[in-house]
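Design job #97: recover the sequence.
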């Protein structure tokens, strides 16, 4: 499980223990890396193959998946560029590791780039768990997300990714046909045990449906 740099992103890969469950693409928050969400991925969907890339942008030495101009102000041209790069990496990883289309689990900055990939390159993802997301683009693309399952988890006391922002994202994705479930939890910006429990139940339920 050493970091691998042979594909376009430095990343970690954990092979599937149960090939009947979908693989997970794990996208860290600001300052994280390819190791951060591996324990979360293993807890959320036991047996799933895990692909965990490192963001390619540095902000004061901290990895991110795209540039921002200020707190909460995104460089939208860079969002589009990095979303395309990440979609390309997903395809590389699918070929290299022989895995299916992944469900993405993104936290904070990782959730924001996941939402961008979902709308700009919907074919790259089978679904999404977006934890503490914001709307990544002022003008969201007119994507066809028919039936694509999306779980959005917000923190009621989150000063960064406020629940009203996540509601706008949920509405935007639903307008494009996604099957969106949005939960607002009694939490701040950090990951809580409630997030883990809800995301696990959601993922296991959908994995069981896919396997049936």
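Job complete. Output follows.
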């Amino acid at each position: 499980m050493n970091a691998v740099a042979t594909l376009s992103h430095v990343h970690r890969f954990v092979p599937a223990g149960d090939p009947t469950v979908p693989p997970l693409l794990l996208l860290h928050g600001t300052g994280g890396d390819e190791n951060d969400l591996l324990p979360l991925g293993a807890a959320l969907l036991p047996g799933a193959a895990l692909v965990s890339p490192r963001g390619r942008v540095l902000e004061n030495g901290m990895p991110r998946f795209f540039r921002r101009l200020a707190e909460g102000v995104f460089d939208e041209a860079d969002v589009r560029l990095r979303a395309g790069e990440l979609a390309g990496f997903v395809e590389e990883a699918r070929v290299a590791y022989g895995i299916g289309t992944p469900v993405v689990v993104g936290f904070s900055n990782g959730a924001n780039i996941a939402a961008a990939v979902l709308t700009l390159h919907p074919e790259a993802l089978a679904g999404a768990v977006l934890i503490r997301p914001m709307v990544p683009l002022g003008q969201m693309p007119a994507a066809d997300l028919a039936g694509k399952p999306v779980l959005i988890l917000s923190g009621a006391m989150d000063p960064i990714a406020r629940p009203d922002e996540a509601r706008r994202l949920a509405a935007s994705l639903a307008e494009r046909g996604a099957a969106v479930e949005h939960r607002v939890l009694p939490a701040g910006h950090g990951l809580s045990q409630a997030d883990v429990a809800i995301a696990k139940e959601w993922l296991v339920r959908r994995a069981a449906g896919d396997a049936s």
